[in-house]
Design brief:
binds phenylalanine; flat; about 20% strand; three-stranded antiparallel beta sheet; seven-stranded mixed beta sheet; alpha+beta
Length: about 500
């Protein structure tokens, strides 16, 4: 039988009676372990060897672990210094002991936090005792460190756990493959195996010389396991936010910027939200205690907004006939929507007066005191946007959404009439969840009312929206819980494995 060189060598080095690991075979053949692994898979698929795979945990010392293996654990050194300084059941001053020890800054803290835990003595109000019965030679963590340095294996799992928690060792799992010859392999060996010289890589020289015609190429095993490499990756939420920005810029929008904590004036009052609206009560907003107010709101705008609230706008306008105070409007809270930015821009406060047509957007975080559940968090990203132009209608708004969502593969939007104090008409947008088939609300939108636009000094139409970035992700990727991509419960596997959609 003719086999490529590496396979012939591995077959030769393998035994029918004794398992040999890839590392042993690499040693015996002088080949690289990766080459042996490749050859082993080939031989296995030809039925010439059996491969047995198990997972082995190996323990290695971190730099800090190496350091303590050499100098001793800080708590053991502290114990030595305490004894030296004459401590026993009666205490001596900590300063004296630390002075005697050669522990440097962070090591002192480490020593202190392990000293009492391990029974070396007690530490209280600047005084330290040393327990005469404590035996540093029996310190399980120190002994485990010493054994590891000596290349011995450590059975004491508790000590290893302790060292791992302290960041002194790292445990890693790897697959160990061992090989034995099958009956077929033995027969092949008895009949004689010859190494065919094979070429692993085609070179330009081979092509120009024509040598490639005469050589035998090694087969490439495209199914062999390769080591998994998890490189760094941009979080899918951030990736999608960036794509959203690109798409909106492509549609002619410019980006807005502004504060996360803002005066209620920009967050609510400009939006014709009455000051006694339930959403403005203290349990629904995150107020700031320092600073509490923005006291330099633009006077003329404040005056016009107040008038709109009290009297309404236009001939048939109706105000709320409810109390309105500038002080209330000055209070700072975390923004519950980024429509506060739209107000800053539409009023001209952010960038000066804007002439129609204009298009602006932001993809920014907002904060709401919601109850946590699979679709609600206390913070999320809102895709805010507006278009200012003459004669806009709901059809323009719908057309914009269709165009926008189509870029993300979402073509089945549905709309539902809705109420916002600041838009009329208003509607919510829904998409279908790709896994559950449920309708998911993805956004809220409408045409700003005259009560909003007139005080801002805008005398044409403005259509606007706030969409949820996380809900868009749900429709794109099919996950069901917002906590899969946000916060401490974030599913790392999902983030690693999710393919980037383009
Ligand atoms: N502010 C609304 C929300 O947070 C979204 C919206 C913005 C609706 C602009 C209409 C106009 O749900």
């Amino acid at each position: 039988m003719k086999l490529p060189e590496s396979q012939a060598a591995v077959l030769e080095a393998a035994s029918a009676t004794e398992k040999r690991t890839v590392d042993q075979l690499a040693e015996a053949t002088g080949l690289q372990p990766e080459t042996v692994t490749g050859a082993v898979f080939e031989l296995e698929s030809d039925g010439l060897v059996d491969v047995d795979e198990r997972t082995e945990t190996s323990v290695s010392l971190t730099d800090e672990g190496e350091e303590y293996a050499e100098d001793g654990l800080p708590e053991v050194r502290l114990y030595g210094a305490a004894l030296d300084a004459g401590a026993d059941d009666s205490s001596v001053s900590m300063g004296k002991v630390i002075g005697r020890s050669d522990l440097d800054g962070p090591q002192v803290d480490i020593a202190l936090s392990n000293y009492a835990r391990k029974g070396y003595g007690s530490i209280e109000s600047g005084e330290i005792t040393a327990d005469a019965d404590a035996d540093p030679k029996a310190d399980a963590e120190a002994n485990a460190l010493a054994a590891l340095v000596a290349g011995e294996s450590v059975e004491d799992e508790d000590a290893l756990d302790g060292l791992e928690r302290r960041g002194l060792v790292e445990r890693s799992e790897s697959a160990v493959r061992s090989v034995t010859l099958t009956d077929e392999g033995i027969t092949a060996m008895m009949e004689g195996v010859e190494a065919a010289e094979t070429v692993g890589q085609l070179t330009p020289e081979m092509l120009t010389s024509g040598e490639w015609r005469d050589v035998e190429f090694a087969e490439y095993n495209v199914e062999a396991d390769a080591e998994r490499v998890d490189g760094g990756k941009v979080h899918i939420l951030r990736q999608t936010a960036n794509r959203v920005k690109d798409v909106l810029v492509g549609m002619g929008f410019r980006e807005m910027e502004g504060p996360h904590a803002d005066a209620d004036f920009w967050i609510n009052d400009c939006l014709f939200m009455p000051q006694d609206h339930p959403a403005r009560t203290h349990w629904d907003r995150f107020a700031l205690s320092n600073p509490t107010d923005i006291d330099d709101l633009p006077d003329d705008l404040v005056e016009r907004v107040e008038r709109a609230h009290r009297e309404g706008v236009g001939e048939d306008g109706e105000g709320y006939h409810s109390p309105w105070s500038e002080e209330f409007a000055e209070a700072i809270a975390l923004r519950g929507h980024t429509t506060s930015l739209s107000m800053r821009y539409l009023s001209g406060y952010a960038q000066g007066d804007l002439e129609p047509p204009q298009r602006f957007f932001s993809v920014e975080k907002v904060y709401r005191n919601d109850t946590l559940d699979p679709t609600h968090l206390l913070e999320f990203f809102q895709i805010e946007g507006w278009v200012m132009a003459e004669d806009l209608s709901v059809r323009d708004l719908m057309g914009t959404f269709e165009e926008f969502y189509e870029q993300f593969g979402i073509t089945d939007l549905q709309y539902k009439p809705h109420y916002n104090p600041y838009t009329e008409p208003s509607f919510e947008l829904f998409g279908t969840h790709p896994e559950t088939g449920e309708l998911i609300e993805v956004g809220n939108s409408g045409m700003f009312r005259p009560e909003v636009l007139e005080p801002l000094g805008v005398d044409c139409d403005v259509m606007a929206w706030g969409l949820s970035l996380e809900r868009l992700l749900m429709l794109m990727y099919g996950f069901e819980d917002i906590r899969d991509v946000h916060g401490t419960l974030c599913d790392l596997e999902l983030l690693r494995d999710t393919e980037v959609l383009h």
